[in-house]
Structures are given as C-alpha cells and as structure tokens.
Automatic annotation (TrEMBL):
The keyword Signal applies. It comes from Rahnella laticis. This is Outer membrane usher protein. Keywords: Cell outer membrane, Fimbrium biogenesis, Membrane, Signal, Transmembrane, Transmembrane beta strand, Transmembrane helix, Transport. The keyword Membrane applies. It comes from the Bacteria. Gene3D superfamilies: 2.60.40.2070, 2.60.40.3110, 3.10.20.410, Outer membrane usher protein FimD, plug domain. It is found in: Cell outer membrane. The chain crosses the membrane at residues 21-39. Residues 49-194 form the PapC N-terminal domain.
Length: 851
C-alpha cells in the first residue's frame, strides 16, 4: 500500500519557527511517520519503505533513512554495548553486527559463545543451539522465543529469553553463570572512634580506637589483613598512657563456585555448627550459604542491649574486634554481623560517663536442616594459634557434613582430630511441619592432659525453631545444651594444656531463646532474648532483654509510639539491671519529639528529646533532662553520611559529674586501574561497586544505602552491595546538573564476596547548541545522518540543509558523521565554544575508507 500525505508539514519558509528548529523537527516527523504510517511491511525483518513526498525538504534525493528502514537495524560494525538479558545486565561488551548468511543487506548481532555462557541458560538449552559465522555467533532462530534488539541510544542490546530456558533465579539472586569476580584493585577500610571526657574529680581521659581491613583483589582471590589500634591517655591521680597497633589477622579467600563453597587460607577461626570456634592458621573449605538462594541461607547472630549514655559498643571474639560502633543513649540492636560468626561473642559497652559493662552472647544456631538431596560440608586443617600469631598445640583436621535425606529428615555429623585432643559429633534434624523444626546431636570429646590424664565427656544439644502463624509469633531459636564435667571443647583444651588462664570454668548447661510476638489488632510487638549459662566450677551467668512497643494515633498525631525495654546481665555474682521507657510522637516536618525515662543502678534519669532528618544524608538527636538527684543532663548526636566517609559527632554532660564529647568516622579507599575514590563503607573489606561517569564529576549516584556523588575524576564507590545478590545502582536523574544527560542511568551486577565491581554509566556531558554542518563542496550531509562522539553515543541527527541540534558538546572534541552504513566525515568542535545561544558552523572533513 502507498500512503501519500501532501502539504501536512509546513516548510521553513511558511512556518513561524526559525529554520534551525525546523531542521530538528524533521527527524522527529520521520520517526512519527515511521511508527504510524509504514508504507510496506510484510515481515518484521523486511525493510520499511517511506514516501518521501511527505517531507517538505529541498533535496529529496539527499536523504538517508537507512537507519529507520528496518526495525532495530544497526549498520555493520563493532559497538560497545551492555547486554540486558531479561532483568540481568552484562556490561561493556564488544558486540559485532554482521550481515546474516544469505541476507547481505541485513544486520544481526553476533552473540559469541563467551557472551551466551553468561546468560544463565540451562545445559539442555545450550545443546539445542546452533551457530553461524564459523560457529562464533548464536543462531537466534535455533532457540525459539529468544530475541535481540539493539538500542544504540542507550548503548544496550536487549535480549529476551523465555524463562523455561533459564537456570533458577529470583528477584535478587542470580545463578553462578552471572556472578562477577570484579576487577583487580587495592582497598583500605577503617572505623575510628575518639572520645574525650572530664570527671568531677579533675581526671580527664582521651581514647582513640580503630579497626579495619586492608587488602588486594586479584581475579577471584581476596588477600586481606585485619588491623586494630588503640590509644588511651588519662590524667589525674592515676595518669597512664597506652597505645598499640596490631595486625591481628592475615588471610586470603576465594569463592569456589562449582562447589558452592568458600576457601580460606591463612589465619582464621573455625566456622563450625558442631564444634566451638577457635583461632588457627591453615586452610578451610566451607559450603557458603551466601552462594545458595535466599530461602536456603542460614542464620546471622544479633546483639541487643541498652546504652545509658552515648556509648561505644565493641563486639569481639578471642581478643579480635569483629564490630565496633557508637550508639545513642537507649536500646540498641546490632543485626549486621557476618553470618559466618559462630561461638560466644564478648560485648563491651563503654559509656561516656566512664562506666563499662560487659556481657556474652552465644550465637546458638537454628536447627540443622538441609534441603533434600543436598550435602553441605565444612573441612579445615591447620595448627591452633593465639592472638599474638604464636602457634601452639597439635596439628588438627576437622570435617563435618549435613545430608538432606528426604523432605523431612537431615543427618549430620563430624569429627575433629588433633592427636591429644579428639572429638566426634552426630545428630539428626527433623522438619516437624506444623510443629516447627528440631535437631538433636551429641558430641564426644577425649583430651590427654600431662598432669590430669585422659579427660572424656559428652555434650548434648537440642535446637528448636517455629513460626506460629496463627498466633503471629515466632521462636527464632530455642536451644538447650548439657555438657558433662569432663567434656572439653578445643579452646578449653588448649587453654588447659598450654595457657596460663584456667579460670573460665567448664560449661554445664546452656539455655537460649529468642522470641518475637505481634499483637496486630493492638499494634503491639514484643521481643525477648534470653541466655542462661551454668558452670561446673563457678557461678552462673544470665543475660536477657525484653522489649515491647506499641503504635497508635492520638488526635492529629499519627503513629505515636511507646516502647519499654528491660534488661539484666548477671555475671560473677553481680547484677546489672535496667529499664528504659520511651514515648515518641511526630513533630514538625519529618521530626519526632520524645520522652525517655531510664532506670539503672538505682538511679532514674528522665529526658525530653527531639530527632529529625535534615535530608537523606544528615540527621540529628538532642536530649535534655534531669537525674534522680536533681542534676541537669544533656546530650546531642549528629550523623552525616558523606560521599567520602560516614561521620558521627556526639556530646553529653551530667551536672558537675562529667562532660564528654566524641567523634567517629567510617570510610575507605578503593583504587583500581580504572581509578580511585574515597567512600563510606558498610562492612570492612566487603563487596563494593565502582561506578564511572566518564570523567564527569558531581553526578549523583544512588544505591540502597543512599546517594553519593562522583569525585573530580568521575568515580564513586557504592559499598552497600550484598554478595551474590543482584545489586542495582542508578543515576539520580532529578539531581543531574543542567549540562549533563544520562543515556544509560542504571547499572547492575551480581558480585562474589569481597569483589570490586566496575560499571560505566552512559553520561553525556557538555553544552547543547544548534549547528549547521557543511561538507567541503558546500553541500550538507544527507537528511537523517547520525552524529556520534568518540564513545559511540548519538549526539544528534542531521536535519534539512545540515541543521542539527547537538548535545554533549565539549571544547575541542571530535564527532563522526555517518550515512550509507559507514562513517563518512568528522567534525571538530571549536575551543573555546561560542557564547550560549549562538549557533555553530561546522565543516565536516571527509575520511578515507580505511579510516
């Protein structure tokens, strides 16, 4: 069918629009007509013909609509594109477009075996695929339903694959074929806390502590060194100065994706669900839960407590700091510990009034169940060592497994062999369906001590977990463990055999429970955490935390909250009891007003506070009140999440008793061959993504942890990236500067643990202006010719008589002009550019064919 439309588009002579703007409207008209009035289209692959009579241009013979004549047509050649496979992004691929066999005028993307291997196709799907161009390009017709469409404007090749062809995926989890080991680089992450306090007796103390990780990434390997440092100086009656710096751990690890496991070499702690943890130097290979789909992953421990003032919380294990942070006065709950942490954790809360409280958290695990048919394992070998890197004790080897026998039963067991110390464990797990899940195991130990002979004993353990949907409550875990008097774990044996401190005592019974309950009709939630440990040769210890919170509306105040927290820590025959009451109601623009009452150590403090977020990256809290003896108190807490670091400043005072202030900073430096950037961090030494805006600074980039801006080199690092999860980072288009456009504003990656990902946004920065393009003979490139910069990004389309609207103009830059399926000439932009509003006259230099 031939469709003729006459005199529907006004000419520049009759239009009230200036001629340059008309030159821009013509290509837009072409696109609209192409979409609405195709002259002939028999098949999607066939060319579309246009009646150029509808275009009121002077030289109808000088028109090149080749790029519009076929849907998705791309002129043959190589292009740097990102592959969008369904929702997954494979960036920065060199894709060659070739004429298919038997169709010399066509164009098709050559998807190489290497590219296809990253799609996540099932093995059976790949067996049915055929290839062309000397078996280097996938024949899309051989896999029914797969399509590939190029979008050069965004620098993407969109590939749709039927889900039946793909390996298992979820919204956030990708199969191993999509995992990225990142690029090589170095990193240095730090967490520094400083505190200065003055006491009523004239004493002063200054404390600076820090910890972090430095490392190198080489392919799949992560080389790491953990450090911690402390400086203490006190003046007054007992003046002291202490300082130390320790490299407390050197190790290397990598993902073994074929085994769904993690290999660690060097200094580490035993990661075991059956035997207590101890520090050693050697090697381990452990099934990595993080490499499994989310619904198959394990449990990560958490620490809860209450701070009396602004305080520093330090979580350590066997002398090594695992986590350190500052918290505001009131209840705190730390939930982002590594899921690989096991055994007992030592928690120290240092208050700004100088008091210190400590307690122990047992990371009891949920019942040991394994998916039917799946075998999970952990093997380690090496030699025990102390915190000072001194090896002590016998060489050892340990191994354990868990086998999902069927949908209801799991069998697990293991052994630890070390010559004079040996232990074996065997257990069974059962899915009780409506009644929850339970596992039961027994461990037998035998230790040979020079002065005490052979000590042999058993330890029995029961773990239970259940969510009661009908009651809207959940027992996260409940555990009971009983150990005979002569039972010893490896740490106790090493301490008894080689150490000087034997006062820790022998464990007898341990009860642990964590319980959550929701009373939804009343908008009430309750949380209970309890641990009770008894010993054969010393007093028992107890730790429990209880919190209840309620949300309700009062008049114009919506979401008013009331919460009560109570805690007890009993150790060495003394109790540390406390209670915290908080009432909070919305006040002002996004703020909240609160009343807090805290009881501890026989005293009762009452404060009124105000909290507000200034913006996405800044928030503050202020409090003022009185103590039970009538003294005034006050405190402030300000947090800033900057592009280069996260910083917290705090201060507090209590009458004439004390005043204190502190600051903390958390951040890191990541450097690669692609560039370097300072940034804030979430986990020291953890996974991160470096993004590149092609040298354009101050581009707002948004990850799940907030917005950061690129540095003066156009680089930024987003550290809130989870391993083995699909993570997205996007340009905040609403905050882009006026002279910057984003042709590709979203990037994705699925990174292995500790990787440094690298992704490049499509950023077009520069001025925008009208231009007239002329060839050497005074003529113009044909209507519809494309203009691209050196990065291959389209910056304009030639209109009538060479009129072109150019974007992304930079002084002295060169751009290529293409028609007839090839680059024909090149324009050079002047330096400096003319004043804004003035047009450009740009000669186009013809290129030789070999260029």
């Amino acid at each position: 069918m031939i469709l003729k439309v006459k005199n529907r588009i006004p000419s520049a002579r009759n239009s009230r629009l200036p001629a340059p703007f008309y030159g821009v409207l013509c290509p837009i008209a072409v696109g609209v007509l192409m979409a609405l009035f195709p002259v002939r289209s028999v098949l999607a692959e066939e060319a579309v013909q246009f009646n150029t009579d509808v275009l009121d241009v002077k030289e109808r013979a000088n028109i090149d609509l080749g790029q519009f004549s076929q849907p998705g047509y791309v002129m043959p050649g190589k292009y740097q594109l990102s592959l969008h496979v369904n929702k997954f992004d494979i960036p920065d691929q060199s894709v060659e477009f070739l004429a298919p066999e038997g169709d010399p005028k066509g164009s098709e993307a050559c998807l190489t075996p290497e590219m296809v291997g990253k799609f996540g196709l099932k093995a059976a799907t790949l067996k049915g695929a055929t290839w062309w161009h000397e078996n280097q390009c996938l024949d899309l017709k051989s896999l029914d339903g797969i399509t590939a469409t190029a979008d050069l404007g965004t620098g993407a090749l969109n590939i749709n694959v039927p889900q039946a062809y793909m390996e298992y995926t979820s919204e956030t989890w990708e199969p191993p074929s999509h995992w990225d080991n990142g690029i090589a680089g170095v990193l240095f992450d730090y967490n520094v806390n400083a505190m200065n306090s003055s006491q009523s007796d004239g004493g002063r103390s200054r404390t600076v502590s820090g910890n972090g990780t430095t490392g190198v990434n080489l392919g799949p390997w992560r080389l790491r060194a953990d450090w911690q440092a402390q400086y203490n100086k006190s003046t007054g009656e007992n003046s002291t100065t202490q300082k130390n710096w320790d490299w407390n751990r050197f190790y290397a690890y990598r993902a073994v994706t074929s085994l769904r496991a993690k290999m660690v070499l060097g200094e580490t702690s035993l990661n075991s669900a059956m035997f207590d943890s101890f520090r050693f130097s050697g090697a381990s290979l452990v099934t990595d839960d993080n490499q499994l789909p989310p619904n198959l992953r394990g449990y990560a421990p958490e620490v809860v407590g209450v701070a009396k003032t602004n305080a520093k919380v330090t979580i350590s294990q066997q002398g090594q700091v695992l986590y350190e942070t500052t918290v505001a006065a009131g209840p705190f709950r730390i939930q982002d510990l590594n899921s690989a942490v096991s055994g007992k954790l030592d928690v120290k809360v240092e208050e700004q009034d100088g008091s210190i409280s400590t307690f122990t958290v047992d990371t009891a695990s949920i019942p040991y169940l394994t998916r039917p048919g799946l075998v999970r394992y952990k093997v380690s070998a090496g030699k025990p060592e102390d915190y000072s890197h001194h090896m002590q004790g016998p060489d050892f080897a340990t191994g354990e497994f868990s086998w999902g026998v069927n949908s209801g039963w799991s069998l697990y067991g293991g052994a630890l062999l070390a010559g004079d110390y040996n232990a074996a464990s065997l257990g069974v797990g059962r899915d009780l369906l409506a009644f929850g899940a339970m596992s039961v195991d027994v461990t037998q130990s035998q230790a040979q001590l020079p002065d005490e002979g052979t000590k042999s004993g058993k330890s029995f353990r029961v773990s239970y977990s259940k969510r009661f949907d009908e009651y809207d409550s959940q027992v996260t875990f409940a555990g009971y463990r009983f150990s005979e008097k002569n039972f010893m774990n490896m740490s106790q044996y090493l301490d008894r055999r080689y150490g000087e401190n034997t006062s820790d005592g022998s464990d007898k019974e341990l009860y642990t429970v964590t319980f959550n309950k929701q009373f939804r009709p009343l908008n009430i939630s309750a949380y209970l955490n309890y641990s009770h440990q008894t010993y054969w040769d010393r007093d028992a210890t107890d730790t429990w935390n209880l919190s209840v919170s309620n949300f309700f509306d009062v008049g114009r105040f919506k979401n008013v909250s009331v919460s009560v927290s109570a805690y007890r820590s009993q150790r060495d025959g003394s109790n540390d009891d406390g209670m915290y009451l908080s009432l909070s109601l919305p006040w002002g623009n996004g703020g909240s007003l609160s009343y807090n009452s805290q009881y501890s150590d026989g005293s009762n403090n009452r404060t009124v506070g105000y909290y507000n977020r200034l913006d996405e990256n800044n928030n503050y809290r202020i409090n003022a009140g009185t103590t039970s003896d009538g003294q005034g108190t006050g405190s402030g807490y300000f947090t800033h999440d900057g592009d280069k670091a996260s910083m917290t400043a705090n201060a507090s005072y209590t009458g004439s008793e004390y005043n204190a202030y502190g600051i903390s900073m958390q951040g890191g430096l990541t450097a690669t061959a692609q560039g370097a950037a300072l940034h804030r961090i979430s986990t020291p030494g953890g996974t991160r993504m470096m993004v590149d805006t092609d040298g354009v600074s101050d581009v707002p980039v948004h990850g799940s942890g907030g917005t950061v801006r690129t540095n003066s080199f156009g680089k930024a690092v987003v550290s809130d990236v989870s391993s083995y999860y699909r993570s997205s980072v996007n340009v905040d288009l609403d905050k882009l500067p006026d002279n910057v456009d984003a042709t590709r504003s979203v990037v994705q990656d699925t990174l292995t643990e500790g990787a440094i990902g690298y992704r490049k946004f499509g950023i077009l920065a520069g001025e925008k202006a009208m231009a007239i393009i002329r060839l050497a003979d005074g003529s113009s490139p044909p209507f519809g010719a494309e203009i691209r910069n050196k990065q291959g990004t389209q910056t304009g389309i030639v209109g009538e008589n060479g009129s072109t609207w150019l974007s992304g103009i930079r002084p002295g830059e060169s751009m290529d002009v293409s028609w007839n399926d090839a680059v024909q000439c090149r324009i050079d932009l002047p330096s400096p550019l003319p004043e804004q509003g003035k047009g450009l006259l740009l000669p186009c230099r013809l290129l030789k064919k070999n260029n």
